[in-house]
Amino acid sequence: FTPEWLHQSAAGSRVAIKTWLMDQRRVVGVGNIYASEALFRARLDPRRPAHSLSPSEARRLHGAVQGVLAEAIEFRGTTFLDYRDAEGNPGGFVARLRVYDRAGAPCLACDTPIERIVQGGRSSFFCPRCQR
User: Fold this and answer.
1) Considering the domain boundaries, does residue 114 fall inside one?
2) What residues contact 129, with CB distance under 8 A and at least 6 apart?
3) In a domain, 15, yes or no
4) Contacts with 3 (C-beta within 8 Å, 6 or more apart), sequence order
5) CA torsion 99→102→107→108, rounded to 10°?
6) Is residue 38 part of a domain?
7) In this predicted structure, what is the pLDDT of residue 29?
8) Interatomic CA distance for residues 83 and 56, integer angstroms
9) End-to-end Cα, the chain, rounded Å
10) What domain range includes position 62?
11) Can you list the residues of the chain whose pLDDT is less than 50?
12) What angle is formed at CA 37 by the lines to CA 105 and CA 92, rounded to 5 degrees?
């Protein structure tokens, strides 16, 4: 998984970047929560076609995916209701979420309300001002 591979692989796809990112045949381990968070950090609209990413946007997304996953591991995952790690502790990454499950709340970067849309039967959360 490199920025170059991400750019080249996405270049051949017309699906939305969030849908592409969650395809486990392409990038393993990026689920709905982490895809929304990585796209926010990379400042990319989840509805954009995957093939529209520039090389610099692919680099930003690559770094954001790696950063979100590393942080999620460091904070033991994301607990909303009942998830516990092997030692019985809830995941602490939920406190670090910037867009996921925050529809209507102000963006932490610009105060624009976070929006929720449905993509592939899954909720996507994003800031319409920060993410293009």
Assistant:
1) no
2) 107, 110, 112
3) yes
4) 55, 58, 59, 62, 63
5) -80
6) yes
7) 85
8) 36
9) 23
10) 3-95
11) none
12) 85
Q: Does residue 18 contact residue 35 with C-beta atoms inside 8 Å?
A: yes
Tokens of 89: 């502790």
Kindly provide the residue ranges of all beta strands, DSSP E only, lying in 4-111, ordered along the sequence: none
What whole-number distance in Å separates Cα of residue 132 and Cα of residue 124? 14
How far is residue 30's CA from residue 36's CA, in Å, rounded to a whole number? 9
Hey, CA dihedral for 15, 18, 19, 20, is it positive or negative? positive
CB atoms within 10 A of CB 110: 10
Structure tokens at 91: 């995941």
CATH of the domain at 19: 1.10.8.50
In a domain, 120, yes or no: no
Look at residue 79 in the predicted model and tell me its pLDDT. Answer: 59
3-state secondary structure of 96: helix
Q: What share of the chain is helix, strand, coil (3-state, %, to 5)?
A: 40, 10, 50
Contact 31, 22 (CB under 8 A): yes
The per-residue pLDDT for 80 is 57
At 18, list the tokens.
């969030």
Report the number of distinct structural domains present in the chain. Answer: 1
